[in-house]
Sequence to fold (356 residues):
Amino acid sequence: MSRFPLTSSAGFRIGAAAIAWLMLITVLHLSLNRESKSANRVIMGYMPVVANLAPPLIDYVTKGDGLYFEARKFASFSEMGEAFRSGHIQAAFIIAPLAIRLFEQGVPMKIVYIGNRHESTLVMRAGERCESPSDLIGKKIAVPIRYSGHLLALKRYMRTHGLNESQVQILEVPPPEMPAALASSEIDGYFVGEPFASKSMETGAGKRFLDVESIWPKFICNLLIVREELIESHPEWVQELVSTAARSGLWAQDHMEETVKIVSSYWGQDPRFVQYVFSNPPGRYRFDLYTPIPEELDEMAREMLREGLTGKQLDASSMVEDRFARKAVNGSFSPSGDIYSIKLDTKTGFQTQVRQ
Fold:
């Protein structure tokens, strides 16, 4: 028996507190179970590149919402493509020729949005003579993947200036490994989207040789593909995804400091470096050309056929679904608002995140 027995009033208070605690735990448990069952989630694959600026911003503003677009970072486009092919992700901000290749292989998908443009650069090792096309002769140039617009743009540049394929060695190197490969002289240059090109220029290991828009105006680096079953089952989700993506780019132009803060945490990059990427040169990137146009994809498909990356000329109109992008921005959106203004004001019944 206890040496200091409890009084009846004290025992009642403790018993009541214990019952209240159990009730609280039960309510929280049921609430969390309901949330996990009712929450809707779309997983978006992306790479930490400027052309994929939208996924971190979309993830940031929809986290905690009834409809959450989760940004899942991949180490390579090939890995992302396989995740999309298998259905492990429902959407992918992916390099354009690889999307075309997936379509050719019968993966049920549509192109619904184009990432911001004019953000790819051919960088050469500092100290190398690089003043004319002939200076590329005998050099080893890396591209992210065989199925990349960078390979196609480089081949187009070589054809334009009379260089044949035997004069330039083209290698595949994952973008995160390119700056180190250049610094160690494993390669002489690389053609890639930002921020990987700026990494070598910031450290002084590399220098700008040319920007992709000088070769290919309105060049498409990355685009957004979604699985057809998502369009069929939840077109309103796809509309919300595309609208938020389009608005995120327009918003970022007027709020670069906040944009840098958010995306650098997702990319795992120093904010000062990300600021350097967007400032050198300033105003280069185009965020307003987000609607997929079949003729532009046809042009890329022709380049792929020329290089043996497809077996036949594909009809881009069959892989493009532009209705979501055409409805992406309406009169109710103003880029001057805060980050949460990029979300589409729909009547889907989903709860809007409470701002802290």
Observations:
- The chain has a mean pLDDT of 86.
